[in-house]
């Protein structure tokens, strides 16, 4: 067999990623032929310079290990000859090949002239639902043994196994899928796309039968879907009230837990009699069940019997999509394994979550000029051979464009005339829902589609899990902002795309397509119209609401509330101008469609740079359209929620002048659930780990429109041994958050703590601005260096998701997070041992929504601080503490660096709502680090004793 049929799978470890400054410290090559590793080569390389500390931490390669190794000059002839005539393969080939070629060039060799493949992009296309595409992640997903990540010999061998899996996977795809992949104008690194061409050629030489689980519809290979069989039910099945009955039911599949059993009985007893739906939030069941009690199984088991006996469905609403999947799994796997009758759960989401096959088929014929969008199409083509749901959340897409994904989910204008009629994924979900007892949704879905879930004549049961998040989900879903400066900038930047004279521009593309001149005229005329109308609308807003304001504006942002009737009248007066804007935007969208249709006919004519110019045009036009839609949304809010909305103008004064932002949305949820949710269901069960803010507060009931007088309320005690598993430390000499030295205090105190602690740590902030200031000061102080800790900051070093992933997979991680890090995080055991709260989690006090809420409460005879501000802070505080202890064997500490918890009268209220048995200590800032060190050393000793 000729050498070119040999794949040389290469991995380099280097001192730096820069080709100019970096040097190779290890190189490994695994040779693959006929899908078998036939040979391996590996050597350490002396870089003739020190290895940076972070590289040693990552790879385990020390200066001592390379000291006696050969220099690259000595190995270059051998390596160069070995690679000649092979196909070069690497996991991120655009790093390894150029780096190696740069080293060869430095020594006077010609760069390697070989074909090259990238296993990263191939993995992303062929396994689009994999949780990650780092080598360690994709290897684990495919069950490939990877013994020493970030060492070249192990990485090369693992990548070779991955390459073999890639070749097998590509060849197993249906011919129509391979043909579609080859037809796409895919731009992949080096010659990576040839893998699909080779697989297609092999398939044509030896055609493979289509697997039974697939079918081909209008040129797309998709998973075959069959209507589910009717549920196997047993109307005579009796709910197991007694402990012995439950233990018999569980067998060896579940463990009997007394608190969980009590929860089950509460649910079963409350709904023994069929309760009628009502809009007033009466006769509800409210249960505060702590983390670790098994509440999901605790309420789903009795509800399964209720649904079976009364032939009703159960709607379960949870805060997040992730929790939706977890609840569905508990029902379909754990619950189904023990019940004497069948149960099914299905996750329901809005149609925008599901791929529309007709829209996707149409998208395959359109060349948007975007490399990224063609890549997503390739991933979806493969995904269609796997997915039964068509749910986009299954996919692991890299920075998908929202507008493009929305287009892929849009139903066709004439669905009955589509070849995919009866096969669309949203229709599949409707079919599954009809044959399931449990419909699991998220809070945002419940708020929007409650009327479609419940029918008054045969109302389903309703469980709202973690209901304290439901009002906020409703409010946040309604909030939106129109930034006039950004809107106008998008228009101007789009205009520039038609006038710039660089190498790749829209004008050159239009000059080469039929009807390009007319299309250009349509674009330029409508953009000019928007450039004129948008500033006029902004000026009218200013004159109507801000012209007579007497405040002298300095630089910065200033906010002003707007009277709702005045805003409604303003939109009436500006109706003509708004119609012109919406008409111009609609015409731009039509012009873009015509442009793309013509562009798509001229395949392989345009360069990558020209395609990028077209992608820029699409992106800017989408942004212009999004801004225009917000006007209609604001107007609709005024119609739908005239008494529950808040609107405000933000005026920014800077060197460029003054600019406006219009913001608005729901202010509160008073009567929202009475009108839009409760009438469609049996009185609900509300269950969560942190519902109440004090023993007397009505905050929870008021926000959810619950009739407290008729509610059955139960609070379960903690199940974890907080006395030995945890401690809560309060700094009695902490600097006030209002002090000018506050940021400096936090940076130094946190640095001191990290000198004594080497555990995974989460540091919680209320403000992203403070978070960033503290992070940079901690960097200057070399915080964490003593214990070799890695500092990560939300919005600085990565997103929330990326930071959480590192905490789940690595040790020595210190994460600085705000807002979303206070709740919804599950990091058990060593993934999180220490939570540090920099201040009490009060809402921003001077925001327009906060002021409007205070005014609303005062108008109704209530005290804003005790009826809103403090309860919100207590809930967030409880949720922050709840991030820590997640399992019976877990342990950890919480530190509060806000002295108000000790000094203010409300501090006692907050402390009283923390776990009763959690030890609480008041220490000076200097004492905190040593106390934590002793705590963790003691716990580590206990662990080693209990687990020898």
Helices and strands in order:
Layout lengths: L6 E8 L9 E10 L2 E9 L8 H7 L3 H5 L4 H12 L3 E4 L2 H14 L9 E3 H8 L8 H8 L9 H21 L2 H9 L10 H12 L8 E4 L2 E4 L19 H8 L7 H13 L14 E4 L6 H16 L3 E5 L2 H15 L9 E3 L9 H8 L6 H13 L18 H8 L15 H10 L3 E5 H11 L7 E5 L4 H9 L1 E4 H14 L8 H5 L5 H30 L10 E6 L2 H10 L1 H27 L6 H33 L4 E10 L2 E10 L5 H5 L8 E4 L10 H5 L8 E4 L6 H4 E6 L10 H15 L4 E5 L2 H13 L9 E4 L6 H10 L3 E6 L15 E4 L10 H12 L4 H18 L10 E5 L3 H4 L1 H8 L7 E4 L1 H22 L2
Q: Would you kindly provide a written description of the structure presented here, covering whatever features stand out?
A:
- The structure is a single chain.
- The protein is of the alpha/beta class.
- The chain has 36 helices and 25 strands.
- It folds into 5 domains: 3-209, Ribonuclease H-like superfamily/Ribonuclease H (Nucleotidyltransferase, domain 5); 254-344 and 436-460 and 681-715, P-loop containing nucleotide triphosphate hydrolases (Rossmann fold, 3-Layer(aba) Sandwich), CATH 3.40.50.300; 351-431, no CATH class; 479-666, no CATH class; 722-946, Rossmann fold (3-Layer(aba) Sandwich), CATH 3.40.50.300.
- 40% of the residues are buried.
- Strand 6 and strand 7 (220-223) form a beta hairpin.
- The model has no long low-confidence stretch (mean pLDDT 87).
- It is 47% helix and 14% strand.
